[in-house]
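Internal tracking record. Fields below are filled automatically when a chain is submitted to the structure queue. Please do not edit lines marked as system-generated. If the sequence contains nonstandard residues, flag them in the REMARKS field before resubmitting.
Queue: standard
Priority: normal
Entity type: single polypeptide chain
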Amino acid sequence: MNASMVIQSQLLATKFFVPTASGPLIARPRLTALLDQSLKYPLTLVSAPAGFGKTTLLSTWGRSLPVSTSRLCWISLDEDDNDPQLFWASVLSALDRQLPHHFTPLLLQLQSQSRPPLKQLLVALINLLVESMQRFVLILDDYHLITEQEVHTTLSYLVQHLPPQLHVIIATRADPPLPLPMQRVRHHLLEVRTEQLRCTIEETRAFFDEVMHIHLPHETIQEATARTEGWLVSLRLLGLSLPERADPLTILQQISGKQRYILDYLTEVVLQRQPQDVQTFLLSTCILEHLTASLCDAVMQQTGSQQMLQQLEQANVFVVSLDSNRQWYRYHALFAEALYHQLKQTHADLIPLLHSRASLWYAQHDQTTEAILHALKAKEWQWAADLIERKSLELNALNWGVSHYQLFLLRDWLMQIPADVISARPGLCLACIWMLVFIAPQTVLETWLNAVEATLTNALTQADHQESAPSMLVSQTRQELENMLGEAIAYRALLQSLDEEGEAALLLCQQAQALLSADNFGARSHIAVTRLFASYTSANDAAAAIQIGLRAGSLNQTTGNTDQAISLMGVTAMHMIGTGCLHETQRLAQQAILLGKKSDALFPPAVGWPMVWQAEVLREWNQLSAALSCVEEAIKLLVQLEWTISLPHVLHGYSELLRISLSRGDDNAASSALQEIERIGMNMHQPSYIHSCSYFITIDKVRLWLVRGELDRARQWAKELDLKRRHGTPFAREREEVACARIFLAASQPDLTLQQLEPVFQRATVGQRWSHVIEIRLLQALAYQMRQEETQALSALSEGVCLAEPEGYIRSFIDEGVPMETLLYRLRKRDRNSGPTPYLDTLLTAFQQERMVRVRAEEQAQVQALPEPLSKRELEVLQLLAHGASNQEIAQELVIALNTVKRHVCHIFAKLGVQNRFHAVRQARELGLLGEEL
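SYSTEM-GENERATED OUTPUT FOLLOWS
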């Protein structure tokens, strides 16, 4: 095992160790008794600001738990646990450490390439716990470090379905966004908060007597408790700051203000009391999140750190041991912050040097992430760039295999490096642009592109004049320089294709193509996607866009670039949907999926991309259950890509889930999908997000608002759209116009609707985007109907029907609701004079089936709305009540005692909220609890 693996293994193991006290502790029986009581609740929340002893309390109590009663699973959370996969890997690992191999199959599933959705994995975990004879206490310490919504969402699911075998304790500085109110109502939550954690006067006395060995008068104890407000960390600092025979009231009188000022003041006093070598060590190493002897030696440039760490631990100076071998430590978080404040006040010039030394140590031990972070904090830009460049080949090959969370960290790292440093390394710069093309701010990407193009153009010009090229490009051949310049121009073209300059992107694609070598299939595929985008969204030539995509996909398939071929087939299928070619889209999507399943491509989850569009075809054909299963499988695959370029793919997966949820009448699921879309959008730069939304989300977001009766919200959105300068491609603005037309229609403004739709109808027709023409024709028909102009309404509808019939469109009609059904009846009545109308018959039958499904769903919802459902026997009694049977007749019919019948009748009345038989039967009929024969 190499040094990197050893260190990583050691650090990972420390997450699961229950922290040990570094010195004597006071007994706090009132709090331990409270935690003992917590085992009667599924969830316990220990919430208080830093320094109130949450970790100490829980670790002390946890160590006292009998193994025969509960197995303690401890996780010290950190920022990396914002990655949902890492978070749940930690949870499963903690459980598995307590019951070896029991949870290993789930852990292996989570870490596999074809891992199931987290919700599915949690269901399996819950079932596994239910089957277990063991009970577990899971303590999640420092949960305030978790900011990722998906972690909160998945933990919420577990909390809401906690089996009796698992008790969860969350220690945090702030209340987490979990369903706490619901848990309170159900009495499933015990809360331990700041007021309970404050030291009492008795505990303050015990602390000074037993821990600090300082005996103070009762008045001083009262004053100390009052001034510090029972804040344990300040009491400890106060004890450390008291010299022998000093009057503690003198120091107490100087303590005032907020806790932050108290902490800084007391820390300074504590430091002044330490020997010089201890002060130097504390200040020099406070920049480190984790402490180990060799790292501290490197930062201090001396030896003896192991002895110093042990000395600090024994002296109880806010050092926490992270493992049983005393190899890794950390400072108490508040103490580290206060030390760093002192370091900045007294030796600010040393901070970059200390970070630099730490960076070198981490780099030597192949801990690149930490090495880069410390290099950036040292502002050693060239060294940081060197460290990042070590991964440039992996980045450029798109197989870095890191999580989205780490990719966003990478973005933040790169944005700290001055542009002139990163642009001086064209290869690294291009790799980073490609990695961050959808998540870095547009201005940053433009700055990098400008710099790298200037560098490469200058190098090529000098080479033409046989002058020496820049030193960092000496080893590059002319073809390599041209390749890099071609890639830079290709990326610029891609960015332009997502915004207003789409047609200009086509010229850039020609320039890039001329520079790229024939075997640079990756860059040529990027150009194909750019040309497809620009042709479809800006040049308004859907047929040309589809042909570009088909040719590029076929070429990549021929050359063995399977993952690129699948991606290109997916993006082509997305645009093919707009042309109305549902059957051809279905064939292309199935071909791509089959290709992915047959190959051992680098990213098998890429088949999720064409699956999204297969789901859209199934939705349009009204196969909603199949469509839902398909898109859920697609999303499950796409989120595994862990690649920022996949963010638009995942976003489109949720956009399809939004569409299917709207068609299924599940506006809650649709709203959840939209929230996920907006969450993803927060991590994307604006042009790429607007571009992605233009295909479906812009209109479906408005449709959701209208379904939920939020017309005012939709109107406000349209108003703001008119007031601000619009960005995006002509296609994006066109879809915004259609969304506005839907708002006018919902507001019963048919004239404005028709006025809004006419220019977009013309553009969609010229572009041969027949799916959009169908949508616009249906909206026009509804607007004419609202104006009571039936001839024009049926004419517009007839054209939409003629376009839709060959491809079997169904949902586009049903989703427009009852007014569309009425129009279709009238159109069928008119057209039947000329012969059979099988397609119209199919559409109207689909409306009838839809209505039956909705009625059944409403009846079921009413049944489920009962505070407590009726039992099988109560339903039998209810049926006989409805037939007018007396209690005695019911007893004879069911062969039960008369008193039992009376008890059942009372229960039925209570559950239905009624007082007599008549109202019970009427309420039961309204809820669909009685057979139709009644």
